[in-house]
Amino acid sequence: MKDSGSATSDRRDNPPYRYQDGRVVLILRVQPGAASTEWGGSYGGRALRLKVAAPALDGKANRVLLRFLAKTFGVAPSRVVLNRGEHARTKTVTIHNVTLHRWKEFFTQWESA
Fold first, then answer.
1. Neighbouring C-beta atoms of residue 42, cutoff 10 Å
2. Residue 62, SS3?
3. Residue ranges of the domains in the chain?
4. How many CB atoms lie within 10 A of CB 45?
5. Three-state DSSP class for 110?
6. β-strands 23-32, 47-52: how paired?
7. Region for 92 from its dihedrals, namely left if φ exceeds 0, alpha if ψ lies in -120 to 50, beta otherwise
8. Alpha-carbon gap, residue 17 to 15, rounded angstroms
9. CA quadruple 85, 110, 18, 103: dihedral positive or negative?
10. What sign results for the dihedral spanned by CA atoms 71, 72, 74, 79?
11. Which of 5, 23, 60, 107 stands the most exposed, by the fewest C-beta atoms within 10 Å?
């Protein structure tokens, strides 16, 4: 099935991230085994691409991913929850106790990328 809208309009209409009441929900497309852990752009407007410097073995990539998100949003690692996709490349993650300032910082950087 062909997508009728552009990636840009999809990103604005249904972005792969949201913030509400101190909670951030992200839809991620994870690439394990990268040289470094870093953001990798958009994945077709449906997810945020994240390169992870750990193999997808024994949950190593998931642990690195959760620590990276905790650092990015300035929260304790225990405040980052993998909701969906433990064994998949596409994951849904919730980060709790994110300040509005931190969210705006992330959102502004992502939208300008």
1. 19
2. helix
3. 7-112
4. 19
5. helix
6. parallel
7. beta
8. 5
9. positive
10. negative
11. 5
The fold of the 7-112 domain, in CATH, is Conserved Hypothetical Protein Mth637; Chain: A; (3.30.1200)
Longest CA–CA span in the chain (Å) reads: 41
Place of tokens 């024994």: 58
81: tokens are: 């929850």
- Helix and strand tally (H, E) in the chain? 3, 6
- Show Cβ contacts of residue 5 under 8 Å, excluding neighbours closer than 6 positions: 13
CA 5 and chain centroid, separation: 22
Query: Which residues in the chain land under pLDDT 50?
Result: 1-11
| CA-derived radius of gyration, the chain | 14
